[in-house]
Amino acid sequence: MVAKTPPSHSKRAQSAPADTVSDAVADAAEGNDTGNIATVALLEEAIEPVARAMGYEIVLLEWLGGRGGRIVRVYLDHPNGVSLDDCSRMGRIFSNALDAAEADPQTPALAALLAQPYTLEVSSPGVDRPLRRLSHFARHVGGRAVVRTREPLNPGDEQRTFHGRIVGTEVDPSNPEDDRLGTVLLRALDGDTIYPISLPEIRRANLVYEMPGTPGVKN
Question: Per-residue pLDDT averaged across 63-75, rounded?
């Protein structure tokens, strides 16, 4: 389920000066993957505290599209589930938070990013819920997942898509409190091979829905 706000336009006469925008955010405007990561982090900083205060968890935030139109897509979760009304209400709240961030002189890079037209979409995770943080994978140990990496895991190997079952997680020893770091252990469906995949290497990961009663599925 998705709730959309109308395309948001900057209320400023001019966007922030170009030299205030980080190279990463500029790269995101051109579709550069590294820049996209930085852009998502900026957007999360603007709305994640609001979501947390309202009792919601941002499962995934995406910055999508090109010059023809941008989309800020937010997947929300809540212990009691997420309804269409929840999506609509939080969409309005997030829109206000982004407007406030755009007007804040302390965040010029985010202001420049939001100066271009964009559409905000808020959705529930769905049965094929995205997995992004280490706690997401830890919560679904035993579940089946598909993981797409940014680059092959091993030199000379072309594989970037891995289908398997989550068998464990490992925190990053240098920063064990950071939920965006760490390693996921994925066991291949067709054997005993276990792939250790670090979170920064993951481009996209989703649970694969399995009917209750399927062997290996926790009911």
Answer: 84
Transcribe 57-123 into DSSP letters: EEEEEEEEEETTEEEEEEEEE-TT---HHHHHHHHHHHHHHHHHHHH-TT-HHHHHHHTS-EEEEEE
Residue 116's pLDDT band (cuts 50, 70, 90): confident
pLDDT at 174 over 60: yes
Contact criterion met (CB below 8 Å) for 139 and 36: no
Instruction: List the one residue out of 41, 49, 218 whose CA is nearest residue 142.
Output: 218
Joined tokens for residue 135: 């706690």
Which three-class secondary structure state does DSSP give residue 187?
strand
Angstrom distance (rounded) from CA 112 to CA 211? 45
- Confidence at residue 4, expressed as pLDDT on a 0 to 100 scale: 54
This prediction's pTM: 0.75
Per DSSP bridges, beta strands 183-188 and 161-170 are antiparallel
Asked if residue 68 lies in contact with residue 119, where contact means CB atoms within 8 angstroms, the answer is no
Q: In a 10 Å sphere around its CB, with 0-12 CB exposed, 13-18 middle and 19+ buried, how is residue 198 labelled? A: middle
Q: Say what the alpha-carbon torsion angle 52, 91, 136, 159 is, to the nearest 10 degrees.
A: -150
Work out the pLDDT band at 21, boundaries 50, 70, 90: very low
Q: What pLDDT score does 3 carry?
A: 61
Amino acid at 43: L
The answer to whether the beta carbons of residues 99 and 12 sit under 8 Å apart is no
